[in-house]
Design a protein that fits this description.
The strands form two sheets. Strands 2-1-3-4-5 form a five-stranded parallel beta sheet, sandwiched between helices. It has a five-stranded antiparallel beta sheet with strand order 7-6-10-9-8. The radius of gyration is 22 Å and the shape is elongated. By secondary structure, the protein is an alpha/beta fold. α2 runs parallel beside α3.
Length: 295
């Protein structure tokens, strides 16, 4: 795969220094003298990693990263600067607009390693995008990390909650802005998923207006670091039974089917065994379709 790296700085000497530093790499290098030029390149080229200065005419580096996230969300964004607003940088990093910051003057070896890491992380971002396409199903789905921070939500989930995906990202699944579940429920779900089991039960979500959205939720571990949450929304007139399994015989787990270790969508973690639940059987089939043919 051809790797495209975009270098953005209003000082030609910096661009040349970066080019010399990366001359042994097989990457194709693009360059821009300011943020507006960079955005034009991002609109027309598939850029894997962008390395940008902070202080530039017309648009600073943080603003560039924010706009780059909108038009090319799977580009890895590295901010390289000797002059930066650290409060703004901290906010941009927490928001996910900037992936990494390196101060000038830089160490050539370390910066090259940072860009190489960016290339690897971009592949993960791209795989996550493919994952997102795979879960564009009729089920409402979220992907969280092992701390229950939402990393991905499919269109159905966003529709159900009346919100945008970017407003869900970074929130905790058990926070009041996302659900009505208490710490006891969180502890039980955590215990089961950490043991490699799929938790299945009633789960009350909150929509954008903090109105309750009752659902059955299947939460399955995707290796030690990620959790797949698949929802079956309960209609307004549905009665909540005492037990999801007793009330819904079709939700009783089928025999466990092990997915191959390479089924981690390049997340570099093995997918553990997951029951073939009604709400998620089709989803796992679509995930399998992303795997290499030899798995």
């Amino acid at each position: 795969m051809q790797v495209n790296v975009l270098l953005v700085d209003d000082e030609p000497g910096i661009i040349q220094a970066l080019r010399r530093m990366l001359r042994t790499q097989s990457w194709q290098l693009f360059e821009a003298n300011d943020g507006e030029e960079a955005l034009e390149i991002l609109r027309n080229e598939r850029i894997h990693v962008m390395v940008t200065d902070f202080k530039m005419p017309r648009r600073d580096g943080i603003s560039l990263c924010q706009e780059a996230r909108r038009i090319s969300p799977y580009t890895y964004r590295l901010l390289l600067s000797g002059q930066v607003d650290y409060a703004a940088l901290r906010e941009a990093w927490h928001a996910g607009d900037v992936h990494r910051f390196v101060a000038k003057p830089w160490d050539n070896t370390l910066l090259t390693m940072d860009i190489e890491e960016g290339v690897q992380q971009q592949r993960l971002l791209d795989r996550t995008h493919q994952f997102g396409q795979a879960i564009a199903t009729n089920s409402a789905v979220m992907l969280t990390d092992d701390n229950w921070v939402v990393r991905l939500a499919n269109p159905k989930m966003c529709d159900v909650l009346g919100t945008r995906e970017e407003d869900l990202l970074g929130r905790n699944l058990f926070s009041v802005g996302v659900s009505a579940e208490d710490v006891t429920q969180e502890a039980e779900v955590t215990r089961q998923t950490e043991q490699g089991h799929t938790w299945l039960g009633h789960f009350t979500l909150h929509d954008q207006s903090r109105q309750q959205v009752p659902a059955w939720m299947a939460i399955a571990p995707l290796g030690p670091r990620y959790r797949l949450c698949v929802c079956d929304i309960i209609g307004d007139n549905a009665r909540l039974p005492d037990s999801p399994v007793d009330a819904r015989p079709d939700l009783k787990p089928a025999p466990v089917e092990a997915l191959p270790e390479s089924a981690a969508l390049r997340l570099e973690l093995p997918i553990t065994q997951v029951p073939d639940l009604t709400a998620s059987a089709a989803l796992f089939g679509q995930i399998k379709a992303l795997l290499p043919a030899d798995t």
